[in-house]
Specification:
mainly alpha
Length: 72
């Protein structure tokens, strides 16, 4: 039982590290692309903030919709 839980923790850590690396790579690629097209940092920041809010709202709706939809 202990061995399984330790392996699960290592897998979650590896997944988290991979996700951070992929996100960093995507951010660098998008920054280079935005610079190539001549976008200012303020334009990039405002669009990224708006998209982050939209994604957060969609995730919250999905999460709370599943929890509230279960009748007891």
């Amino acid at each position: 039982m202990l061995l399984v839980s330790v392996m699960k923790i290592k897998f979650d850590l590896a997944t988290a590290i991979s996700a951070v690396c992929v996100a960093a790579y995507a951010a660098i690629a998008l920054a280079c692309t935005a610079y190539y097209f001549g976008l200012s940092p303020q334009e990039i920041r405002s669009v990224a903030g708006s998209i982050a809010v939209i994604v957060a709202v969609l995730i919250a709706i999905d999460f709370f919709g599943k929890k509230l939809g279960k009748a007891k």
